[in-house]
Design brief:
mainly alpha, Growth Hormone, Chain: A, 2 domains, 17 helices, globular, disordered N terminus
Length: 474
């Protein structure tokens, strides 16, 4: 996301599993397990942005390489999120959760001791793969353990804990960078992962998977390859500020693979990783475009703002991390209020206005390099962006569910989450040239990137106004 990855845009709806219902004798410990497991993804997604300048200095990485520190994680997470959930249904949710945790822990060790940038990138890709395994299955386990009102309360606690983790991670990461170095950002994942593994093996039932669906392997491979090639090509274009032959070839192959993915999903029908019947809904198509544009804009700014604060305003990593605090705090406080308001007014109005407010916040953030004062430069921009996102997060989730048939609610929610991360993936790929710049060029590139982001956010609001039919969507 970049940063949809910081605040989860939605929570998939999970079918109850007979093997899970009533099987958990320690629901509080199951809740603790899922919070610890999913916090790895929330924390790691937000902490790395603060560390980009230190990583670049430590491994002599240029701007295009630094964008891959973020995208190496987002790429497998975006492409494999739906597959990770389906694999849990097939092989067992606890098993996939534990496998994901083990892989995430190993990947964190690789990142911690990476001697070169290539090793760091390999670790980030493995982290993203592990997150794609543990994220959907942690929530599936949670939803299958609780029922009725208790389920809603448990998911609320889970989401609140994720928001707290996302808020505190940049602060902790900045402190670690300033005191002992950037590698400790990754090493801190180990105790969390080990604790979650131990709790999962002790308290989470081994059920799940009775439906035994077949994995959509062709869909997963084609989606991953297409995203990888398109992201790599966009990174090259951003850095070179032209279309080199290798980038053009990668774009062409990526587009062909994307078409192949659509054809493969069409042949599989409802057994597909992404049933194309979803796109018969005008509302779902509009919400997909809105999500991509809005979370792409947010993901880009959450990479750029700490980078510019450290590189141009000479903030320490700790202070740069603290500068982002208004975003998760305001969203956590205001989202429930906006959710209730959307219940009365419908999703159309908040989803039309919220992204426009985000765009205004991005325009305010253009002043950050020239206004070194946090309270007059960074703070107003972050609060405005946060208010706009708070107006969109809860209505977006509700509108996604309402735009499709109940049997597709889970995959629609999961796909929307993947689209949010893909928006951040594409945005970060396009920032390679900005991250490679210094001084006046960095400030100019930053300003141009934020203007494009503001336009995308405003366009997301227009899409919502055109495609969402108001209260009937709820």
């Amino acid at each position: 996301m970049g940063s949809a990855r910081h605040i989860p845009p939605d929570h998939p709806v999970i079918e109850d599993s007979p093997a899970f219902q009533g099987a958990a004798g320690h629901p509080a410990m199951v809740l603790t397990t899922t919070i610890l497991a999913s916090s790895l993804s929330f924390i790691d997604g937000s902490i790395v942005n603060v560390g980009l300048p230190a990583i670049g200095h430590g491994l002599s990485a240029d701007g295009a390489q630094l964008s891959w520190v973020v995208n190496g994680y987002l790429l497998p997470l975006s492409a494999l999120l739906l597959t990770g959930g389906a694999a849990g249904d097939l092989f067992g949710r606890r098993r996939l959760l534990v496998w994901g945790l083990v892989l995430f822990a190993i990947a964190s060790l690789i990142c911690t001791f990476a001697p070169t940038f290539a090793w760091l990138l390999a670790g980030r890709v493995l982290q993203g793969t592990g997150a794609a395994m543990l994220m959907p299955n942690s929530l599936a386990i949670l939803a299958a353990t609780f029922d009725g009102a208790r389920r809603g309360k448990a998911i609320g606690i889970w989401a609140a804990a994720g928001a707290v983790g996302a808020a505190g991670a940049p602060l902790l990461g900045g402190w670690l960078i300033d005191t002992v170095g950037w590698r400790w950002m990754f090493l801190m994942n180990l105790p969390i992962a080990l604790a979650a593994i131990a709790l999962a093996m002790r308290y989470v039932p081994a059920g799940g998977g009775e439906a035994r669906p077949r994995l959509d392997v062709p869909g997963a491979v084609l989606a991953s390859a297409a995203l990888a090639l398109l992201t790599w090509a966009l990174t090259i274009v951003s850095e070179a500020r032209m279309l080199p032959v290798r980038a053009a070839i990668a774009l062409l192959i990526g587009i062909c693979l994307g078409i192949g993915f659509i054809l493969a999903e069409h042949r599989r029908g409802d057994r597909a990783m992404l049933p194309l019947a979803l796109f018969r809904s005008r509302g779902f198509v509009g919400l997909t475009i809105l999500t991509f544009l809005l979370y792409g804009a947010l993901g880009g700014v959450l990479v750029l703002i700490p980078y510019v604060l450290i590189g141009l305003s000479r903030y320490s990593a700790l202070v740069a991390g603290a500068a982002l605090l208004p975003l998760p705090i305001v969203i956590s406080v205001a989202s429930p209020l906006m959710g209730r308001m959307a219940g009365k007014l419908g999703a159309r109005l908040p989803l039309s206005i919220g992204p426009v407010i985000v765009g205004v916040g991005l325009l305010l953030a253009i002043r950050i390099p020239s206004d070194g004062n946090y309270w007059t430069g960074t703070f107003p921009a972050m609060v405005t962006i946060a208010l706009g996102m708070a107006g969109a997060v809860a209505p977006l989730t509700t509108a996604v569910f309402a735009s499709v048939q109940n049997r597709h609610a889970g995959v629609a929610s999961g796909f929307n989450s993947a689209v949010a991360r893909t928006g951040g993936l594409v945005a970060t790929a396009l920032l390679g040239g900005v991250l490679a710049a210094r001084g006046i060029e960095l400030a100019a590139g930053y300003g141009m990137a934020l203007m494009v982001g503001a336009a995308c956010a405003a366009m997301a609001g227009v899409v919502a106004f055109i495609t969402i039919e108001g209260k009937r969507d709820l």
